[in-house]
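From the pipeline queue, job 12 of 40. The input is one protein chain; the requested action is below.

Action: predict structure.
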Amino acid sequence: MIRVLVALVRRDLVLASRVGGSGALSLVFFLMIVALVPFALGPDLNLLSRIGPAILWLSAVLATLIGLDRIFQADEEDGSLDLMTASPAPLELVVLAKVLAHWLTTGLPLALASPLFGLLVALSPTAMGATALTLLVGTPALTFIGAVGAALTASIRRGGLILAIVVLPLMIPTLIFGVSAVDSALGGTVPFATPLIILGALSLIAAVVGTLAAAAALRWSD
C-alpha cells in the first residue's frame, strides 16, 4: 500500500510539474491579496503588523481554493479516475495520494513563502515564524476539506463556484485557530502550543474524515 501511495503521489507531482497551474496560480493569488491590502488600509505600519497574520491566513484560505476543482476533475475527464476506482487499490488510498500531492504543490509553497510575503504587511520575525508554522500545520486541513467539495463537483463542469460555496464555511474553524495561534505567539493570554495543537488536531481529523468523505462522494457520483 505504501508503494502504491508513493507511486500515485509521484504521478500527480510529475503531472503538476509538466502542466504547471494551480501551485503557481495559488502563489500569485496569495501575493496579489497580500500586496493589495496595504494599499487599501494605508501606510499605518502598526495597523498592518497587528492584522498581518489574519491577512496572510485569509489569503492562504482563498488561494487554497485555486485549483481544488482539478484534484479529481482532470482524471474524471480523461477516464483515469475510472481506472483508479476499478484498481485493486482502495479508493481511499487513491484519494489520500491525490490530496497529498495537491497539498505539496499548493499548501506547502504557501506556508514556505509566507515569511517573505509577511514583509509586505510589516510582520516582525516572530510573527513571520509563527505564521509560517501555523500555515504548515493548518493548510493540510484546508486541502482535505476542499477535497470533499472537489469530489462532489468532479463531474460538474465549471464547478469551482459551487465548490467554494460548499467548503468555505467548513474552513472557518481552521482560519480562526490559525490566527489565534499567531496572536498567542505574539503575547496573547493563551500559550502558543494550545491553539497550535488544536490546529494540528483539525488537520488530522480533516485528513481522516476528508479522505473517507471524498472517496464516498466519488463512489456516489459513479
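Job complete. The radius of gyration is 18 Å.
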